[in-house]
Amino acid sequence: MSIVEPVWLRAEPSRARRGRPLTRENIVDAAVILLDRHGVDGLTMRRLAERLDVTATALYWHVRTKDDVLDLAVDRIFGDVPIPAGSDDWEENIRVLARGWRAAMLDHSWAPGLVGRPMLGPNVLARTEFLQAALVRGGCHGRRLAVVTRMVANFVIGASLTEATWRRTADPEVRAAARDHVASHADAYPTLTASGHLDDTRWNDDLLFEEGLTALLRAGTSR
Fold first, then answer.
1. How far apart are CA 169 and CA 178, in angstroms?
2. CATH 2.40.10.220 fits 82-221, yes or no
3. Please, which contacts does 199-205 make with residues 24 or more away whose CB atoms are closer than 8 Å?
4. What is the 3-state secondary structure (H, E, C) of 124-170?
5. Among residues 97, 215, 114, 93, which one has the least CA distance to residue 164?
6. Of the candidates 44, 219, 55, 195, the residue with the CA atom closest to the CA atom of residue 147
7. For the chain, what are the domain ranges?
8. Beta strands in 11-156 (DSSP E)
9. How far are the Cα atoms of 17, 104, 142, 168 from residue 13, in angstroms, in the given order?
C-alpha cells in the first residue's frame, strides 16, 4: 500500500496554468468558508471546485485529496491564534496562547476534531514552538517537556471540542433540562449535584477553562 505524503512535505506546483489563477491560499480561503457553513462532512472536492469556479482538474493540480484541504484549513485556523510577546511570566504566556487557541477553535467548531491530523503546518509549528519555549522557561525539559506539552494541547483541544459540540447541539432549554435531571436525582448523584455538574449558571465554561489550565500547569511543572 502506498503512503500518501502529507501536503506540508510537498512543494506547491509552480507551473502556471491557463485560465483563472488558483493557489493553495485561494483554495484554503474557500475551504474554510465551506467548513464553517457545512462542517467536515459537507466539504467535498466538487463543492469546493464550484465555490472557486474552477474545474476539478484545476483543483487537483494544487491539492491531491480532501485530506490535503483539511490539513491546510486547520493550519489556517491556527494562524488566527495570537502569539504573545515572550516574557519571564511563562505561565501567563501559555495562558494567553491557550485562550487564543480555544477562541479560534470555538470560532470554527469543525476544527477541534481535526487537530489530531499531522500537524506540520507553519502556523501550528510556530505556536507549538512558543508553547515549548515557555515551558522550558518554567523548568520543563526532556520527557517532562513532552508530557506537559501534550497535557496542555489535549486540555485545550478537549475543552474546545466539548464546548463546540455542546453549543452546537444544546439550546438553553436543553441545558436547563440537563441541570434539572441531575438535580432531580440528587440521591443517586449527590456529588454531581453538589459540584454543579452541567450547571453552567454556577460555573461557566470560561471560568472552568481558566482554572483548569492553571491547575494543569502547576501540576505538570511541579517537582
1. 13
2. no
3. 200/175, 205/159, 205/163
4. HHHHHHHHHHHHHHCCCCHHHHHHHHHHHHHHHHHHHHHHHHHHHHC
5. 114
6. 219
7. 7-77, 82-221
8. none
9. 10, 30, 38, 38
Instruction: Note the CATH architecture for domain 7-77.
Output: Orthogonal Bundle (1.10)
**Average pLDDT, consecutive stretches of 10 residues, N- to C-terminus, the chain (223 residues):** 65 60 90 95 94 90 91 94 90 96 94 80 94 94 95 93 79 81 91 86 88 91 71
Task: Determine the residue type at 45.
Answer: M
Q: For residues 134 and 93, is the Cβ–Cβ distance under 8 A?
A: yes
Taking each helix axis as running N to C, give the angle between helix 45-52 and helix 24-42, from 0 to 180 degrees, rounded to the nearest 10. Answer: 140
Question: Which residues are CB-neighbours of 40 under 8 A, at least 6 positions away?
Answer: 70, 110, 113, 114
Predicted model pTM: 0.85
